[in-house]
From TrEMBL:
Residues 15-400 form the Glycosyl hydrolase family 13 catalytic domain. NCBIfam families: trehalose_TreY. Gene3D superfamilies: Glycosidases, Maltooligosyl trehalose synthase, domain 2, Maltooligosyl trehalose synthase, domain 3, Maltooligosyl trehalose synthase, domain 4. GO terms for molecular function: (1,4)-alpha-D-glucan 1-alpha-D-glucosylmutase activity. This is Maltooligosyl trehalose synthase. It holds the Pfam family Alpha-amylase. Transmembrane segments: none annotated. It comes from Micromonospora maris.
Length: 763
């Protein structure tokens, strides 16, 4: 090892947070080096809202978060990383800042105090023309403002603190409040009436105007200083779709950090290409969808569609469902943003303008249109919106003409809106309503594309190698809807569609729930994560139901429905017949799930790109959606198992998860220590009766082989005489140590110990 890091070759994501701070992270340096990564990839490090468990609510861009240990702890982390040859990749948040605690954010506090005269008034995307800055913090009560007090020269509303403008502090708290540049309003008015752009529908995250060079400079000064000093090797840009001018922003960032590995959290829809930005690629959701789809049997699609129709009592169209959920997001959750957009089209009746813009956003096929494809996406959206709302022809034509002009203010703001509509309408709503087969309901995924055939995957990988060879690959992030191993086990259901239909029908009859789609989602989730702690499954059920917003919701929860929902979860543990059958079935499909897990992990780590390992996923991980996937990780267990592997132990594929750690560590070490073996990508032909069950490729010397559809493979008689021709006559498997000398290998021999193999030329 050297005391400096080389190029970013593989990353390990750590959710740095107050209860796992920078010093705790520094303690992982030796383990991560032994694992085989080249860089630590951290959650945001700048000062976030007090107590923040994620760091995406930055309140002060001038300093390292003191709750993480501050600058001294960052320096200790750097020394620890450098001592073992590791580098650092950091997460930055240019789109928004945290404003839930105004006193913690000096810029926001000054804007509240001085209004448009504040030196920071241009930092935030505020519509001052609509009057005072609305802050949705009051209880739902006509006399809520009676609770205002004045303490230490500040307005107080319970635990909330607000500044008082100079010369306005005389009189009662109500009188003082009425003189401020801001107005405290009921929390329910947030979605409909706010006068500042938010991150999605989160009123505690205010949009930043980084298109302003002064704002860019002030909010990026510290991060760019780290890059200039060689203290940061990579930057991950959070949510570029939310920016006014993503291409301009990324060009400025690239100019400021020309030698830094730069990736963007750009979620691409099925078949969508990353714009020609000056970046190294995305955070890997496109790879996640392609890799995970390999282990889903596409032949089962009709069975699951029929099951979904029978369970819910209706045939559900994904296109209609997502149109409705996106329209709901546009007109309710993002009503304030829609109102602001409609005001930019005064030539159109306000109600018609709102309806037309909402329909266009609901019909927009991607998160956001970028040149040159943006014009085509807009045309498609106009056609679909016109088909659905013939009564809006005039308004649709008028606003579409405006949206075609890239210099029009409406055209500049509308793309910020469509991204938020897609995220809230699809990721955060439709994915919880469409429960046909939830293994496909993943960020960057396409639930209507039921599986990925090997040929399509190879085309994807070849294109990736040619166009974006240093883009990130991933299987799990802090934003994924369920952990990678949960998805891998759920993929097994596609090999047993009739069996699954019989079981889940019986369970739903034994423990009925008025919302059949949600019930199906919960039963799939339980099978995929079992055994899962009861309290975790209760928390997941509540979040899923409220996100779906069909039978209950965040704003107005339905106590009776939620009681029935929690009773269903309890029955999974307490009903003897149901619990026994659930546990038995989960245990039955777990080995095939392990096979899928190892296969997708090997492919993700060995394919073109920079592979990321999300914290803890080097062992089996049954995490669900955030915040479940941010749970503490037992690194002591992982260190101990890795040491045993290095001492020569070759584990069985069992519940220790050590087999996955073997695959992860050996693949990452091979990429780090023998990079010349990973400079190309060639699909490999498998010959024989079970060829469809293997995925194999040559990375330029290293050959990866994985098993797909393991239950059908077994039912068809196993590998039999299926063979693979090797590129050189003598290769060894890094997982088993076995050497193969004749240039052709039987898969029954190669995959006898593990369902995966990584072969390299012997030295």
């Amino acid at each position: 090892m050297t005391d400096t890091a080389g190029p970013v070759g593989a990353t390990y994501r750590v959710q740095v947070r107050p209860d796992f701070d920078l010093d705790a992270t520094a303690g992982l340096a030796g383990y991560l080096a032994d694992l085989g990564v080249t860089h630590l990839y951290s959650a945001p490090l700048l000062t976030a809202a007090p107590g923040s468990t994620h760091g995406y609510d930055v309140v002060d861009h001038r300093q390292v978060n003191p709750e993480l240990g501050g600058e001294p702890a960052r320096q200790r982390l750097l020394r620890a990383l450098r001592s073992v040859g590791l580098g650092l990749v950091v997460d930055i948040v240019p789109n928004h800042a945290g404003v839930a605690v105004p006193a913690a954010n000096p810029a926001w506090w000054d804007v509240l105090r001085r209004g448009r005269d504040s030196a920071y008034a241009n930092w935030f995307d505020i519509d001052w023309a609509r009057g005072r800055l609305l802050l949705p913090v009051l209880a739902e009560s006509p006399d809520a403002l009676d609770a205002l007090t004045i303490v230490d020269g500040e307005l107080r509303y319970h635990e909330h603190r607000f500044p008082i403008a100079d010369g306005t502090g005389d009189g009662s708290p109500r009188e003082v409040h009425d003189r401020q540049h801001y107005e405290l309003v009921c929390w329910r008015r947030g979605d409909a009436e706010l006068t500042y752009r938010r991150f999605f529908a989160v009123s505690s995250l205010a949009g930043l105007r980084v298109e302003d060079p002064a704002v860019f400079a002030a909010t990026h000064e510290l991060i760019l200083a780290w890059a200039a000093n060689g203290e940061v090797d990579g930057i991950r840009v959070d949510h570029p779709d939310g920016l006014r001018d993503p291409a301009g922003y990324l060009a400025r960032l690239r100019d400021a950090a020309p030698d830094t590995w730069l990736i963007v959290e750009k979620i691409l829809e099925y078949g969508e290409e990353l714009p020609a930005w000056p970046v190294d690629g995305t955070t890997g959701y496109d790879a996640l969808a392609a890799v995970c789809g390999l282990f889903v049997d596409g032949d089962a699609e009709a069975d699951f569609t029929a099951l979904d129709t029978r369970l819910t009592g209706r045939a559900t169209s994904w296109a209609d469902l997502t149109h409705d959920t996106k329209l709901g997001a546009a007109t309710r959750l993002l009503a304030a943003e829609l109102t602001r957009l409609a005001a930019l089209a005064p030539e159109v009746d306000p109600d018609a303008a709102r309806a037309a813009l909402a329909e266009l956003a609901a019909a927009f096929p991607v998160y956001r249109g970028y040149p040159p494809d943006g014009v085509r996406h807009l045309a498609n959206a106009r056609a679909e919106a016109g088909r659905r709302r013939t009564d809006l022809t005039g308004a649709l034509d008028a606003v579409t003409r405006r949206l075609r002009d890239p210099d029009d203010e409406l055209a500049r703001r509308f793309p910020q809106f469509t991204g938020a509509v897609m995220a809230k309408g699809v990721e955060d709503t439709a994915y919880y309503r469409w429960s046909r087969f939830v293994a496909l309901n993943e960020v960057g995924g396409s639930p209507t594309h039921f599986g990925t055939l090997p040929g399509r995957f190879h085309r994807f990988a070849v294109a990736r190698h040619d166009r974006w060879p240093t883009s990130m690959t991933t299987l799990s992030t802090h934003d994924t809807k369920r952990g990678e191993d949960v998805r891998a086990r759920l993929a097994v259901l596609a090999e047993l569609p009739q069996r699954w239909a019989q079981l889940v029908t019986g369970w739903m009859a034994a423990v009925p729930l008025p919302d059949a789609a949600l019930a199906h989602l919960l039963w799939q989730t339980a099978v995929g994560a079992w055994p899962v702690e009861r309290e975790r499954l209760h928390a997941y059920a509540e979040k899923a139901a409220r996100e779906a917003a069909v039978s209950t919701g965040w704003t107005d929860p339905d106590p009776a429905f939620e009681q029935a929902m929690h009773a269903l979860v309890d029955a999974m543990y307490d009903d003897p017949a149901v619990s026994a059958e659930l546990a038995a079935f989960a245990a039955e499909i777990t080995p095939a799930g392990w096979s899928n897990s190892l296969g997708q992990k090997l492919i993700q780590l060995a394919m073109p790109g920079v592979p990321d390992t999300y914290q803890g996923t080097e062992l089996w991980d049954n995490s669900l959606v955030d915040p479940d996937n941010r749970r503490p990780v037992d690194f002591g267990v992982r260190r101990e198992l890795l040491a045993r592997l290095d001492a020569g132990w070759r584990p069985a594929v069992d519940d220790t998860g050590a087999a996955k750690l073997l695959v992860v560590s050996r693949t990452l070490r091979a990429r780090r220590d023998r990079p010349e073996l990973f400079g190309d990508y060639q699909p490999m032909l498998v010959h024989g009766p079970a060829a469809r069950h293997a995925v194999a490729f040559d990375r330029g010397g290293a050959v990866a082989v994985a098993t797909r559809l393991p239950l059908r493979l077994a039912a068809e008689g196993g590998w039999r005489d299926t063979t693979l021709s090797l590129p050189v006559n003598q290769m060894s498997c890094l997982f088993t140590g076995r050497v193969y000398r004749d240039g052709r290998v039987r898969l029954a021999d190669l995959l006898a110990t593990y369902p995966v193999a990584l072969l390299v030329p012997t030295t």
